[in-house]
Amino acid sequence: MSYSIRKRLIGYLLVPLTALLAFSIVTDYREGLHVANKAYDHALFGTVLAIAAQLDPDENGLDLDLQEQAEQVLRTDMADEVFYAVIDRHGRLIAGDPLLQSKLIPPHGDNPVYRFDHIGNQEVRLVTYHYRPTANAHEGVFILVAETTKKRQRDASRIMVTTLWTDLLLILTSLAVVFFGVRYAVAPLERMSQRIDRREPDDLRPLDEAQAPKEIRPFVRAINRLIANLREAASAQQAFLSNAAHQLRTPLAALQTQLELVAETLQGEPRERLRRAQESLVRLSHLTRQMLALARAAHQANTEADFSPVSLEDLVEAAASDFLDTAIARDLHLEFEPSPAVVAGQAWTLRELLANLLDNALRYTPAGGRVTVRCGVAASGIPFLEVEDDGPGIPPHERDKVFERFVRLESDSAGSGLGLAIVKEVADLHRAHITLTEGSNGKGLRVRVEFPPLQAALSRQENDS
Prior knowledge:
Blueprint: H1 5-53, E1 55-58, E2 61-64, H2 68-75, E3 82-88, E4 93-96, E5 113-119, E6 122-131, E7 141-148, H3 150-185, H4 187-197, H5 217-263, H6 268-297, E8 308-311, H7 312-329, E9 333-337, E10 342-345, H8 347-364, E11 370-377, E12 383-389, H9 419-429, E13 433-437, E14 445-450, H10 454-464
Parallel strand pairs: 9-11
Antiparallel strand pairs: 1-2, 3-4, 3-7, 5-6, 6-7, 8-10, 11-12, 12-14, 13-14
Helix pairs in contact: 1-3, 5-6, 6-9, 7-8, 8-9
């Protein structure tokens, strides 16, 4: 099951960050409430002092001289209800709200004393102050002032919301940094992946560890070990094919020679049967040679293809001596039109390419026909190799199929279906382009192979290495 490193990191961070946000909400609310309490407690004690300023002594002790308008101002609050009470040292209510009479707890030590309490179903903040008219007076009164906590909770919530937005912004920023940071961090991996993806199938050069981050160098080394194993396997395959080609060619040639000698001593039907066996042996030799050539020319067998300048003109001249006897035996006109042209490639694979093109042309051109081999450099600077015949040709709708292995046309009963497959493999190895068209007289087949310019091909190989 595939997964994303980026999503996994964000998932791992989201849980602790969410827990941190919840903890921050609680602590911010408590801190906000503490700040609000401190501010409003100061205002609440101001009310206590305002009440104390209105206490006057009388024959019974102290009395509160508070006008009705002053009491209204004292109790006026836009958000909360305010309660007050003045109680003497015997617990008797001098003035104010009887509800607070039962809330009296004489302060010991600190004066005033603040606490949370309840009046009915409402939570209140209550301050108790022991008031003495003079510093040396033993008697005095207790002033209690209480207010509901709506303002405090409102302001604490505002402080919490303010910090909550900051915390949320911090978390979102952290996640964004992770999201884009991971993208930036894995950019070297993506670039390395693109470089590998752009490689040709036969490119088995090791990856450059210096271009990889330290964290993935063990992974790169593992890939390089795999590439080395593939390169060794391809080299072993190439060595096996070379040995097989040599080992098979000798016994087949010897067997063909022996059959020819035996045929000279036979007459009648046995000689005819032996002739058919000879024809089968020739086809077997041809098929074996083509199969080995196809395997050796394939991309997978040329993982370390070392290209060098190859003269197409020399290849064409060498083919003249190789196929001239065959053309004469089949009553064909074999013509050569070589011009100087040099390409970057492997000489032996290019010889196989030309040999298979000529073999196909000579095989399918009827007696009295003409086969022409050309090479040179086009006006566009592209080197080319061309073989043209005036045989039956290939219908346009079947020209793409003939490059597949063991694919033969319905009219083809003698071929193996490997000739043009070998041509395609060699052309792909050299990054050449093949076109199939009709011959110059509107009949037959013209096969044109266009190669990359010499300097461009050598420069690309030098860069690849």
